[in-house]
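Message: I would value a second opinion on how I read folds in C-alpha coordinate form. Give me a protein, with the fold worked out from its sequence. Write it directly below this note and I will take it from there.
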Amino acid sequence: MKAYIFPGQGAQFPGMGKDLYETSDVAKALFENANEILGFRITDIMFEGTAEELKETKVTQPAVFLHSVILAKVLDVTPEMVAGHSLGEFSALVVNGALSFEDGLKLVYQRAMAMQKACEIAPSTMAAVLNLDDKIVEDICASVDGVVVAANYNCPGQLVISGEYKAVEIACEKMKEAGAKRALILPVGGAFHSPMMEPARAELAAAIEATTFSTPSCPVYQNVTANAVTNPGEIQKNLISQLTGAVKWTQSVQQMITDGATSFTEVGPGKVLVGLVNKIDKEAATFSA
Protein backbone atom coordinates (compact mmCIF):
# COMPACT_ATOMS: atom_id res chain seq x y z
CA MET A 1 0.00 0.00 0.00
CA LYS A 2 1.21 3.49 -0.87
CA ALA A 3 1.58 5.84 2.10
CA TYR A 4 2.01 9.58 1.54
CA ILE A 5 3.53 11.69 4.30
CA PHE A 6 3.61 15.46 4.72
CA PRO A 7 6.21 17.62 6.53
CA GLY A 8 5.63 20.26 9.19
CA GLN A 9 7.12 23.59 10.21
CA GLY A 10 10.86 23.81 9.66
CA ALA A 11 10.86 22.30 6.16
CA GLN A 12 10.51 25.70 4.44
CA PHE A 13 13.23 27.15 2.17
CA PRO A 14 13.58 30.34 0.06
CA GLY A 15 12.12 29.93 -3.43
CA MET A 16 9.80 27.10 -2.38
CA GLY A 17 6.99 26.46 -4.88
CA LYS A 18 8.26 28.88 -7.53
CA ASP A 19 8.97 26.09 -10.03
CA LEU A 20 5.42 24.74 -9.54
CA TYR A 21 3.90 28.18 -10.10
CA GLU A 22 5.89 28.74 -13.30
CA THR A 23 5.33 25.32 -14.86
CA SER A 24 1.77 24.34 -13.89
CA ASP A 25 -1.50 26.19 -14.58
CA VAL A 26 -3.15 24.14 -11.81
CA ALA A 27 -0.49 25.24 -9.31
CA LYS A 28 -0.65 28.88 -10.42
CA ALA A 29 -4.43 29.00 -9.94
CA LEU A 30 -4.18 27.43 -6.47
CA PHE A 31 -1.39 29.79 -5.38
CA GLU A 32 -3.39 32.83 -6.55
CA ASN A 33 -6.46 31.49 -4.74
CA ALA A 34 -4.32 31.20 -1.59
CA ASN A 35 -3.18 34.82 -1.93
CA GLU A 36 -6.84 35.92 -2.02
CA ILE A 37 -7.84 33.76 0.97
CA LEU A 38 -4.93 34.98 3.11
CA GLY A 39 -5.28 38.64 2.13
CA PHE A 40 -1.59 39.03 1.30
CA ARG A 41 0.69 37.68 -1.42
CA ILE A 42 2.32 34.79 0.37
CA THR A 43 3.73 33.73 -3.00
CA ASP A 44 5.98 36.82 -3.02
CA ILE A 45 7.53 35.71 0.28
CA MET A 46 7.75 32.03 -0.72
CA PHE A 47 9.35 32.73 -4.10
CA GLU A 48 11.50 35.81 -3.38
CA GLY A 49 11.67 36.19 0.42
CA THR A 50 14.64 35.50 2.69
CA ALA A 51 14.95 32.55 5.08
CA GLU A 52 14.29 35.01 7.93
CA GLU A 53 11.04 36.24 6.35
CA LEU A 54 9.92 32.65 5.82
CA LYS A 55 10.45 31.90 9.54
CA GLU A 56 7.59 34.18 10.58
CA THR A 57 4.90 31.83 11.90
CA LYS A 58 2.03 33.38 9.92
CA VAL A 59 4.09 32.69 6.77
CA THR A 60 5.85 29.41 7.62
CA GLN A 61 2.83 27.26 8.33
CA PRO A 62 0.68 28.23 5.32
CA ALA A 63 3.79 28.17 3.07
CA VAL A 64 4.67 24.57 3.96
CA PHE A 65 1.01 23.56 3.70
CA LEU A 66 0.66 25.17 0.26
CA HIS A 67 3.85 23.62 -1.10
CA SER A 68 2.77 20.14 0.02
CA VAL A 69 -0.87 20.28 -1.06
CA ILE A 70 -0.27 21.97 -4.41
CA LEU A 71 2.56 19.57 -5.26
CA ALA A 72 0.25 16.64 -4.42
CA LYS A 73 -2.48 18.07 -6.68
CA VAL A 74 -0.04 18.66 -9.56
CA LEU A 75 1.26 15.09 -9.23
CA ASP A 76 -2.33 13.82 -8.87
CA VAL A 77 -1.30 11.44 -6.08
CA THR A 78 -3.63 8.60 -5.08
CA PRO A 79 -2.67 7.60 -1.53
CA GLU A 80 -3.92 4.50 0.23
CA MET A 81 -2.96 5.95 3.61
CA VAL A 82 -1.68 9.35 4.75
CA ALA A 83 0.00 10.99 7.73
CA GLY A 84 1.52 14.38 8.45
CA HIS A 85 3.99 15.58 11.05
CA SER A 86 2.29 18.25 13.19
CA LEU A 87 1.25 20.96 10.69
CA GLY A 88 1.60 18.31 7.95
CA GLU A 89 -1.53 16.60 9.25
CA PHE A 90 -3.58 19.41 7.69
CA SER A 91 -1.90 18.78 4.33
CA ALA A 92 -2.68 15.06 4.66
CA LEU A 93 -6.35 15.83 5.37
CA VAL A 94 -6.70 17.93 2.22
CA VAL A 95 -4.97 15.31 0.08
CA ASN A 96 -7.24 12.51 1.32
CA GLY A 97 -10.35 14.66 0.88
CA ALA A 98 -11.33 15.15 4.53
CA LEU A 99 -10.86 18.92 4.13
CA SER A 100 -11.25 21.24 1.16
CA PHE A 101 -8.18 23.21 0.01
CA GLU A 102 -9.79 26.49 1.09
CA ASP A 103 -10.86 25.25 4.54
CA GLY A 104 -7.49 23.60 5.13
CA LEU A 105 -5.63 26.83 4.35
CA LYS A 106 -7.92 28.92 6.56
CA LEU A 107 -7.45 26.53 9.49
CA VAL A 108 -3.67 26.46 9.02
CA TYR A 109 -3.53 30.26 9.05
CA GLN A 110 -5.75 30.44 12.16
CA ARG A 111 -3.55 27.79 13.79
CA ALA A 112 -0.39 29.77 13.04
CA MET A 113 -1.80 33.01 14.49
CA ALA A 114 -3.18 31.26 17.58
CA MET A 115 0.15 29.51 18.24
CA GLN A 116 2.03 32.80 17.82
CA LYS A 117 -0.18 34.43 20.47
CA ALA A 118 0.26 31.47 22.84
CA CYS A 119 4.04 31.69 22.47
CA GLU A 120 3.99 35.30 23.67
CA ILE A 121 2.22 34.53 26.96
CA ALA A 122 5.18 32.93 28.79
CA PRO A 123 8.84 32.00 28.06
CA SER A 124 8.79 28.51 26.60
CA THR A 125 10.83 26.33 24.26
CA MET A 126 11.61 22.84 22.96
CA ALA A 127 14.72 20.65 23.10
CA ALA A 128 15.95 17.63 21.14
CA VAL A 129 17.07 14.62 23.16
CA LEU A 130 19.23 12.03 21.38
CA ASN A 131 20.05 8.42 22.23
CA LEU A 132 17.91 8.03 25.32
CA ASP A 133 15.05 5.57 25.78
CA ASP A 134 11.60 7.17 25.48
CA LYS A 135 10.54 5.92 28.90
CA ILE A 136 13.57 7.52 30.57
CA VAL A 137 12.81 10.83 28.84
CA GLU A 138 9.18 10.65 29.97
CA ASP A 139 10.17 9.82 33.56
CA ILE A 140 12.67 12.69 33.73
CA CYS A 141 10.07 15.14 32.41
CA ALA A 142 7.63 13.94 35.07
CA SER A 143 10.26 14.48 37.79
CA VAL A 144 10.87 18.15 36.94
CA ASP A 145 8.89 20.94 38.62
CA GLY A 146 7.04 23.05 36.06
CA VAL A 147 5.69 22.21 32.63
CA VAL A 148 7.87 19.93 30.47
CA VAL A 149 6.61 16.98 28.41
CA ALA A 150 7.63 14.62 25.62
CA ALA A 151 6.33 16.38 22.49
CA ASN A 152 7.66 14.76 19.30
CA TYR A 153 8.44 11.03 19.07
CA ASN A 154 10.41 11.45 15.82
CA CYS A 155 12.23 8.10 15.62
CA PRO A 156 13.91 5.70 18.06
CA GLY A 157 16.57 7.67 19.92
CA GLN A 158 15.23 11.07 18.86
CA LEU A 159 12.60 12.68 21.05
CA VAL A 160 11.76 16.37 21.42
CA ILE A 161 10.62 17.76 24.75
CA SER A 162 8.57 20.93 25.21
CA GLY A 163 7.51 23.28 27.99
CA GLU A 164 8.44 26.21 30.21
CA TYR A 165 11.94 27.46 29.45
CA LYS A 166 13.39 26.83 32.92
CA ALA A 167 11.80 23.38 33.20
CA VAL A 168 13.18 22.39 29.78
CA GLU A 169 16.66 23.59 30.82
CA ILE A 170 16.56 21.51 34.01
CA ALA A 171 15.24 18.47 32.12
CA CYS A 172 18.09 18.78 29.58
CA GLU A 173 20.69 18.63 32.36
CA LYS A 174 19.00 15.54 33.83
CA MET A 175 18.86 13.91 30.37
CA LYS A 176 22.62 14.38 29.95
CA GLU A 177 23.24 12.92 33.42
CA ALA A 178 21.09 9.93 32.40
CA GLY A 179 23.31 9.30 29.37
CA ALA A 180 21.73 11.28 26.53
CA LYS A 181 24.17 11.86 23.67
CA ARG A 182 22.72 15.35 23.34
CA ALA A 183 19.97 17.42 24.96
CA LEU A 184 19.88 20.60 22.93
CA ILE A 185 17.48 23.54 23.19
CA LEU A 186 16.02 24.31 19.76
CA PRO A 187 15.64 27.74 18.10
CA VAL A 188 11.84 27.70 18.12
CA GLY A 189 9.25 30.30 19.06
CA GLY A 190 7.62 28.35 21.88
CA ALA A 191 6.53 25.09 23.46
CA PHE A 192 4.55 23.41 20.70
CA HIS A 193 2.65 20.19 21.50
CA SER A 194 2.62 20.90 25.23
CA PRO A 195 0.11 22.28 27.77
CA MET A 196 1.62 25.72 27.03
CA MET A 197 -0.42 25.68 23.80
CA GLU A 198 -3.78 25.46 25.63
CA PRO A 199 -4.83 29.04 24.69
CA ALA A 200 -4.17 28.20 21.01
CA ARG A 201 -6.01 24.87 21.29
CA ALA A 202 -9.10 26.58 22.72
CA GLU A 203 -9.06 29.20 19.95
CA LEU A 204 -8.51 26.69 17.14
CA ALA A 205 -11.14 24.27 18.51
CA ALA A 206 -13.94 26.71 17.68
CA ALA A 207 -12.68 27.09 14.09
CA ILE A 208 -12.27 23.32 13.60
CA GLU A 209 -15.74 22.61 15.00
CA ALA A 210 -17.23 25.18 12.61
CA THR A 211 -15.53 23.58 9.59
CA THR A 212 -17.07 20.82 7.46
CA PHE A 213 -15.05 17.58 7.42
CA SER A 214 -15.88 14.88 4.86
CA THR A 215 -15.30 11.12 4.87
CA PRO A 216 -11.76 10.76 3.44
CA SER A 217 -10.73 8.58 0.51
CA CYS A 218 -8.24 6.72 2.72
CA PRO A 219 -7.27 6.55 6.41
CA VAL A 220 -5.20 9.26 8.09
CA TYR A 221 -2.83 8.20 10.88
CA GLN A 222 -3.21 11.06 13.31
CA ASN A 223 -0.46 12.40 15.54
CA VAL A 224 -2.22 12.06 18.87
CA THR A 225 -3.40 8.44 18.43
CA ALA A 226 -1.01 6.95 15.81
CA ASN A 227 -4.00 4.95 14.56
CA ALA A 228 -5.92 4.88 11.26
CA VAL A 229 -8.92 7.22 11.31
CA THR A 230 -11.67 7.73 8.70
CA ASN A 231 -14.56 9.06 10.81
CA PRO A 232 -14.89 12.84 10.24
CA GLY A 233 -15.95 13.56 13.83
CA GLU A 234 -13.01 11.62 15.22
CA ILE A 235 -10.62 13.39 12.83
CA GLN A 236 -11.87 16.75 14.13
CA LYS A 237 -11.49 15.70 17.77
CA ASN A 238 -7.93 14.46 17.24
CA LEU A 239 -6.99 17.59 15.31
CA ILE A 240 -8.12 19.76 18.22
CA SER A 241 -6.08 17.64 20.66
CA GLN A 242 -3.00 17.89 18.46
CA LEU A 243 -1.84 21.34 19.60
CA THR A 244 -1.35 20.25 23.20
CA GLY A 245 -0.75 16.54 22.52
CA ALA A 246 2.40 14.72 21.44
CA VAL A 247 3.30 13.98 17.82
CA LYS A 248 3.56 10.17 17.85
CA TRP A 249 5.46 9.91 14.58
CA THR A 250 7.43 6.77 15.41
CA GLN A 251 4.26 4.99 16.50
CA SER A 252 2.32 6.23 13.43
CA VAL A 253 4.90 4.91 10.97
CA GLN A 254 5.13 1.59 12.81
CA GLN A 255 1.33 1.25 12.71
CA MET A 256 1.21 2.10 9.00
CA ILE A 257 3.75 -0.64 8.30
CA THR A 258 1.73 -3.09 10.43
CA ASP A 259 -1.37 -2.12 8.44
CA GLY A 260 0.35 -2.86 5.11
CA ALA A 261 2.32 0.22 4.00
CA THR A 262 4.86 -0.90 1.39
CA SER A 263 6.24 2.54 0.48
CA PHE A 264 6.39 6.05 1.94
CA THR A 265 6.49 9.13 -0.29
CA GLU A 266 7.16 12.52 1.28
CA VAL A 267 5.30 15.31 -0.50
CA GLY A 268 6.41 18.87 0.18
CA PRO A 269 9.57 20.77 1.03
CA GLY A 270 12.55 18.80 2.36
CA LYS A 271 13.28 15.15 3.02
CA VAL A 272 13.21 15.08 6.83
CA LEU A 273 10.35 12.60 7.13
CA VAL A 274 11.76 9.96 4.78
CA GLY A 275 14.95 10.14 6.87
CA LEU A 276 12.92 9.48 10.02
CA VAL A 277 11.01 6.62 8.36
CA ASN A 278 14.33 4.97 7.42
CA LYS A 279 15.46 5.22 11.05
CA ILE A 280 12.16 3.73 12.25
CA ASP A 281 12.35 0.84 9.77
CA LYS A 282 15.54 0.33 7.76
CA GLU A 283 13.69 -1.91 5.28
CA ALA A 284 11.04 0.69 4.38
CA ALA A 285 10.93 1.90 0.76
CA THR A 286 11.01 5.70 0.79
CA PHE A 287 10.69 8.39 -1.88
CA SER A 288 10.46 12.19 -1.94
CA ALA A 289 8.24 13.94 -4.46
Notes: The mean pLDDT is 96. Strands lie at 2-6, 81-84, 124-130, 148-155, 158-164, 182-185, 220-221, 228-229, 263-266, 285-288. The longest strand covers residues 148-155. DSSP finds 13 helices and ten strands in the chain.
